[in-house]
Amino acid sequence: MSVPSQSPSGPAGPPGAGRTAVVTGASSGIGAATARRLAAEGFDVVLGARRMDRLTELAATIGGRALPLDLTDPSSVEAFAGALDRVDVLVNNAGGAFDARPVADADLDSWERTYEVNVLGTVRLTKALLPKLVASGAGDLLFVGSTAGLVSYEGGASYTAAKHAVHTLAGTLRLELYDQPVRVVEIAPGMVRTDEFSLNRLGSADAADAVYRGVREPLVAEDVADCIAWALTRPHHVNVDLLVVRPRAQAAQHKVHRE
Question: 159 catalytic, yes or no?
Fold first, then answer.
Protein backbone atom coordinates (compact mmCIF):
# COMPACT_ATOMS: atom_id res chain seq x y z
CA MET A 1 0.00 0.00 0.00
CA SER A 2 1.49 3.34 -1.02
CA VAL A 3 1.77 6.20 1.41
CA PRO A 4 1.12 9.75 0.16
CA SER A 5 4.17 11.98 0.22
CA GLN A 6 4.32 14.83 2.70
CA SER A 7 6.24 18.07 2.78
CA PRO A 8 8.61 18.54 5.73
CA SER A 9 6.20 21.08 7.22
CA GLY A 10 3.40 18.53 7.54
CA PRO A 11 0.68 16.73 5.63
CA ALA A 12 -1.61 19.73 5.02
CA GLY A 13 -1.70 21.34 1.58
CA PRO A 14 0.26 20.49 -1.55
CA PRO A 15 3.67 18.80 -1.15
CA GLY A 16 5.69 21.96 -1.80
CA ALA A 17 3.65 24.31 0.39
CA GLY A 18 5.88 26.67 2.34
CA ARG A 19 9.04 25.61 0.50
CA THR A 20 11.17 27.73 -1.83
CA ALA A 21 12.67 25.98 -4.86
CA VAL A 22 15.39 27.50 -7.04
CA VAL A 23 15.58 26.22 -10.63
CA THR A 24 18.53 27.16 -12.84
CA GLY A 25 18.41 27.21 -16.61
CA ALA A 26 14.70 27.89 -16.22
CA SER A 27 14.16 29.86 -19.42
CA SER A 28 13.65 26.77 -21.61
CA GLY A 29 13.61 22.99 -21.85
CA ILE A 30 13.83 20.88 -18.71
CA GLY A 31 14.34 23.93 -16.50
CA ALA A 32 11.17 25.65 -17.67
CA ALA A 33 9.16 22.42 -17.41
CA THR A 34 10.51 21.84 -13.89
CA ALA A 35 9.59 25.35 -12.79
CA ARG A 36 6.04 24.83 -14.03
CA ARG A 37 5.72 21.44 -12.35
CA LEU A 38 7.12 22.55 -9.00
CA ALA A 39 4.81 25.57 -8.98
CA ALA A 40 1.90 23.18 -9.56
CA GLU A 41 3.13 21.15 -6.57
CA GLY A 42 2.85 24.25 -4.37
CA PHE A 43 6.50 25.34 -4.25
CA ASP A 44 7.45 29.01 -4.25
CA VAL A 45 9.64 28.87 -7.37
CA VAL A 46 12.60 31.15 -8.07
CA LEU A 47 13.67 30.97 -11.70
CA GLY A 48 17.25 31.75 -12.67
CA ALA A 49 18.70 32.19 -16.18
CA ARG A 50 20.30 34.78 -18.45
CA ARG A 51 17.37 35.37 -20.82
CA MET A 52 15.20 37.57 -18.67
CA ASP A 53 12.50 38.11 -21.31
CA ARG A 54 11.61 34.43 -21.35
CA LEU A 55 12.17 34.07 -17.62
CA THR A 56 9.89 36.96 -16.67
CA GLU A 57 7.10 35.70 -18.92
CA LEU A 58 7.24 32.20 -17.42
CA ALA A 59 7.46 33.49 -13.86
CA ALA A 60 4.34 35.59 -14.39
CA THR A 61 2.51 32.56 -15.76
CA ILE A 62 3.29 30.29 -12.81
CA GLY A 63 3.38 32.86 -10.02
CA GLY A 64 7.13 32.53 -9.56
CA ARG A 65 10.01 34.96 -9.20
CA ALA A 66 12.50 35.62 -12.00
CA LEU A 67 16.08 36.63 -11.20
CA PRO A 68 18.98 37.08 -13.62
CA LEU A 69 21.64 34.40 -13.28
CA ASP A 70 24.83 33.76 -15.23
CA LEU A 71 26.55 30.79 -13.61
CA THR A 72 29.83 31.64 -15.34
CA ASP A 73 29.96 35.07 -13.63
CA PRO A 74 30.87 35.00 -9.90
CA SER A 75 29.32 38.43 -9.32
CA SER A 76 26.03 37.29 -10.89
CA VAL A 77 25.93 34.22 -8.65
CA GLU A 78 26.72 36.33 -5.60
CA ALA A 79 23.91 38.79 -6.41
CA PHE A 80 21.46 35.94 -7.08
CA ALA A 81 22.25 34.22 -3.78
CA GLY A 82 22.08 37.52 -1.90
CA ALA A 83 18.55 38.16 -3.18
CA LEU A 84 17.23 34.97 -1.57
CA ASP A 85 16.16 34.89 2.06
CA ARG A 86 15.31 31.21 2.06
CA VAL A 87 16.12 28.18 -0.08
CA ASP A 88 14.70 24.72 0.57
CA VAL A 89 15.40 23.20 -2.84
CA LEU A 90 18.09 23.82 -5.45
CA VAL A 91 17.58 22.23 -8.84
CA ASN A 92 20.93 22.49 -10.63
CA ASN A 93 19.63 22.15 -14.16
CA ALA A 94 21.61 24.69 -16.21
CA GLY A 95 24.09 23.14 -18.61
CA GLY A 96 24.53 22.06 -22.18
CA ALA A 97 26.69 20.52 -24.88
CA PHE A 98 28.38 22.64 -27.53
CA ASP A 99 30.17 20.26 -29.89
CA ALA A 100 30.38 16.65 -31.05
CA ARG A 101 34.02 16.44 -32.08
CA PRO A 102 36.39 13.56 -31.44
CA VAL A 103 39.20 14.22 -28.98
CA ALA A 104 41.76 14.34 -31.79
CA ASP A 105 39.93 17.38 -33.20
CA ALA A 106 38.99 18.88 -29.85
CA ASP A 107 37.92 22.51 -29.77
CA LEU A 108 39.39 23.57 -26.43
CA ASP A 109 37.25 26.70 -26.30
CA SER A 110 34.19 24.46 -26.49
CA TRP A 111 35.63 22.20 -23.79
CA GLU A 112 36.22 25.20 -21.55
CA ARG A 113 32.70 26.53 -22.13
CA THR A 114 31.16 23.11 -21.48
CA TYR A 115 33.08 22.67 -18.22
CA GLU A 116 32.42 26.23 -17.08
CA VAL A 117 28.65 25.96 -17.54
CA ASN A 118 28.05 22.38 -16.45
CA VAL A 119 30.60 22.01 -13.66
CA LEU A 120 32.18 25.20 -12.33
CA GLY A 121 28.93 27.15 -12.51
CA THR A 122 27.10 24.37 -10.71
CA VAL A 123 29.74 24.27 -7.98
CA ARG A 124 29.67 28.06 -7.74
CA LEU A 125 25.93 28.25 -7.08
CA THR A 126 25.83 25.16 -4.88
CA LYS A 127 28.53 26.64 -2.65
CA ALA A 128 26.64 29.93 -2.43
CA LEU A 129 23.28 28.38 -1.51
CA LEU A 130 24.37 25.41 0.59
CA PRO A 131 24.22 27.32 3.91
CA LYS A 132 20.58 28.21 3.19
CA LEU A 133 19.75 24.59 2.30
CA VAL A 134 21.23 23.42 5.61
CA ALA A 135 19.46 26.18 7.51
CA SER A 136 16.11 25.11 6.05
CA GLY A 137 16.28 21.95 8.15
CA ALA A 138 15.08 19.83 5.23
CA GLY A 139 17.00 20.86 2.15
CA ASP A 140 17.09 19.22 -1.26
CA LEU A 141 20.07 19.54 -3.58
CA LEU A 142 19.16 18.06 -6.95
CA PHE A 143 21.43 17.71 -9.97
CA VAL A 144 20.09 17.20 -13.47
CA GLY A 145 22.86 15.03 -14.84
CA SER A 146 22.76 12.75 -17.86
CA THR A 147 23.36 9.20 -18.92
CA ALA A 148 26.42 10.83 -20.53
CA GLY A 149 27.72 11.10 -16.97
CA LEU A 150 27.61 7.32 -16.64
CA VAL A 151 28.67 6.07 -20.09
CA SER A 152 31.18 7.52 -22.58
CA TYR A 153 30.63 7.57 -26.33
CA GLU A 154 32.48 8.66 -29.45
CA GLY A 155 32.31 12.33 -30.31
CA GLY A 156 30.96 13.28 -26.94
CA ALA A 157 34.05 13.67 -24.77
CA SER A 158 33.62 17.34 -23.85
CA TYR A 159 30.06 16.74 -22.65
CA THR A 160 30.57 13.28 -21.14
CA ALA A 161 33.61 14.54 -19.21
CA ALA A 162 31.56 17.41 -17.80
CA LYS A 163 28.59 15.22 -16.88
CA HIS A 164 30.87 12.62 -15.31
CA ALA A 165 32.11 15.48 -13.14
CA VAL A 166 28.53 16.38 -12.16
CA HIS A 167 27.89 12.74 -11.25
CA THR A 168 31.01 12.71 -9.06
CA LEU A 169 30.06 16.05 -7.54
CA ALA A 170 26.68 14.68 -6.45
CA GLY A 171 28.27 11.55 -4.99
CA THR A 172 30.90 13.52 -3.11
CA LEU A 173 28.38 15.95 -1.65
CA ARG A 174 26.22 13.07 -0.47
CA LEU A 175 29.18 11.81 1.54
CA GLU A 176 30.19 15.23 2.83
CA LEU A 177 26.63 16.12 3.90
CA TYR A 178 25.75 12.75 5.43
CA ASP A 179 25.21 14.32 8.86
CA GLN A 180 23.33 17.39 7.58
CA PRO A 181 19.58 17.74 6.85
CA VAL A 182 20.12 17.89 3.09
CA ARG A 183 19.27 15.24 0.51
CA VAL A 184 21.45 14.97 -2.59
CA VAL A 185 19.58 13.67 -5.63
CA GLU A 186 20.73 13.06 -9.19
CA ILE A 187 18.37 12.63 -12.14
CA ALA A 188 20.16 11.26 -15.21
CA PRO A 189 18.05 11.48 -18.40
CA GLY A 190 18.86 9.72 -21.63
CA MET A 191 17.40 10.90 -24.93
CA VAL A 192 15.26 14.00 -24.33
CA ARG A 193 13.90 16.03 -27.21
CA THR A 194 13.93 19.75 -26.39
CA ASP A 195 14.01 22.84 -28.58
CA GLU A 196 17.63 23.76 -27.96
CA PHE A 197 19.95 21.01 -26.66
CA SER A 198 20.88 19.24 -29.91
CA LEU A 199 20.61 22.46 -31.89
CA ASN A 200 23.19 24.14 -29.65
CA ARG A 201 25.43 21.10 -29.88
CA LEU A 202 25.26 20.38 -33.60
CA GLY A 203 24.65 23.84 -35.01
CA SER A 204 21.80 23.16 -37.45
CA ALA A 205 18.16 22.20 -37.28
CA ASP A 206 18.65 19.35 -39.75
CA ALA A 207 21.46 17.79 -37.70
CA ALA A 208 19.46 18.22 -34.51
CA ASP A 209 16.37 16.60 -36.05
CA ALA A 210 18.45 13.63 -37.22
CA VAL A 211 19.25 12.72 -33.61
CA TYR A 212 15.60 11.87 -33.00
CA ARG A 213 14.59 10.75 -36.50
CA GLY A 214 12.62 7.51 -36.44
CA VAL A 215 12.54 7.33 -32.64
CA ARG A 216 9.04 6.78 -31.40
CA GLU A 217 8.32 8.98 -28.39
CA PRO A 218 11.68 10.25 -27.15
CA LEU A 219 11.42 11.79 -23.71
CA VAL A 220 10.30 15.40 -23.50
CA ALA A 221 11.11 18.00 -20.87
CA GLU A 222 7.91 17.35 -18.95
CA ASP A 223 8.88 13.69 -18.46
CA VAL A 224 12.08 14.71 -16.68
CA ALA A 225 10.25 17.38 -14.68
CA ASP A 226 7.85 14.68 -13.51
CA CYS A 227 10.79 12.61 -12.20
CA ILE A 228 12.28 15.66 -10.48
CA ALA A 229 9.00 16.51 -8.78
CA TRP A 230 8.53 12.91 -7.67
CA ALA A 231 11.98 12.76 -6.07
CA LEU A 232 11.53 16.10 -4.32
CA THR A 233 8.12 15.24 -2.90
CA ARG A 234 9.11 11.96 -1.21
CA PRO A 235 9.14 12.04 2.59
CA HIS A 236 12.42 13.67 3.53
CA HIS A 237 13.99 10.54 5.01
CA VAL A 238 13.76 8.96 1.51
CA ASN A 239 16.77 9.88 -0.65
CA VAL A 240 16.67 9.09 -4.36
CA ASP A 241 20.43 8.88 -4.93
CA LEU A 242 20.30 8.33 -8.69
CA LEU A 243 17.38 7.99 -11.07
CA VAL A 244 18.21 7.03 -14.67
CA VAL A 245 15.35 7.70 -17.08
CA ARG A 246 15.27 6.91 -20.81
CA PRO A 247 12.59 6.55 -23.46
CA ARG A 248 11.54 2.95 -23.97
CA ALA A 249 13.10 3.07 -27.46
CA GLN A 250 16.54 3.68 -25.97
CA ALA A 251 17.85 0.53 -24.31
CA ALA A 252 21.33 1.98 -23.85
CA GLN A 253 23.41 4.91 -25.03
CA HIS A 254 24.11 3.26 -28.41
CA LYS A 255 21.04 1.01 -28.59
CA VAL A 256 18.12 3.04 -29.99
CA HIS A 257 15.18 1.62 -31.92
CA ARG A 258 14.31 3.67 -35.00
CA GLU A 259 11.35 3.02 -37.27
Answer: yes
